[in-house]
Amino acid sequence: MHQAGLRLLKVTLCATVVSLLSACGYSHQALFPEGIRTVAVPIFENRTTHYRGLERDVTEALIKEIETRGTSLKVVRAGDADSIINGSIISVEQRVLSLDRVGGLPQEVEITVILNFEWKNQRTGQTIRDRRGFATVGRYLPNRRIGESYEVGQHEAAQQIARDIVTAMQANW
After folding, report:
1. pLDDT digits (tens, 9 = 90+) for 86-133
2. How many Cβ atoms sit within 10 Å of the Cβ of residue 2?
3. Which of 150, 116, 146, 153 is nearest to 134 (CA)?
C-alpha cells in the first residue's frame, strides 16, 4: 500500500506540473512557420532626416536578437535564406519627460522609434508577418551629472524594437 500511495503522489505531481506549464503559455507548437529555418536581414531603410545610423543599430540589434535569443532561425545572406525581413524606420520622436528643477534643462528624454517591417517567405513570396507603425521607446538622461548622449537612448530603442520584432515573429502557427 505504501508503494501505491507513492505512485499516486508521483502521478499527481506530474499532472500538476504539466497543468501548470500549459497554463503558463508553454506549448509544443513550433515558434516559426514550418520550413523556415533561415532568414536574411538587410539593413533597414531610414526615412528620417535627422537620425542617421539608427538603421544600422536596428538591423544589428535584430540580427543579434535572432541569433542569441535561442530561436531556431539562422541569419544568412539573402540569396541563401528561406525568408527575409525588410524594414523601414518611418519616424523618430523625442519627448522631454522631466526637467531639472535648478536650470530647467532636460533631465530625462524619451525616444520613440516607429517602423514598418515585413517578413516574407522567399520561396513562395508569401508574407509571413507584416507590421505597420510598429513602435518602441528608449530613454536617456542628458542632464549634467550623468550626461548620457542621444545615442544611449537610440541604442536602448534599437535593442527593444529588436526584441519586439522577434516576439512578433514567434506566433501561433
Report:
1. 999 999 999 988 887 877 778 788 999 999 999 999 999 999 999 999
2. 6
3. 116
Spell out the alpha helix ranges (H) of the chain. 2-23, 54-68, 150-169
Helix axes 54-68, 150-169, angle to 10 degrees: 40
In one letter, which amino acid is 74? K
Q: Which residues contact 40 (CB under 8 A, 6 or more apart)?
A: 75, 76, 77, 78, 80, 81, 83, 84, 85, 122
Q: Which residues contact residue 82 at a Cβ distance below 8 angstroms, ignoring those fewer than 6 apart? A: 35, 36, 37, 38, 39, 121, 122, 123
Phi, psi of 106 (to 5 degrees): -60, 130
Dump strand ranges (E) for 54-152. 74-75, 83-99, 106-121, 127-140
In terms of pLDDT, which residue wins out, 32 or 123? 123
Rounding to the nearest 10 degrees, give the CA dihedral for residues 19, 25, 26, 29. 120
| pLDDT tens, position by position, 67-84 | 998 788 999 999 999 999
CA distance 90 to 125: 24
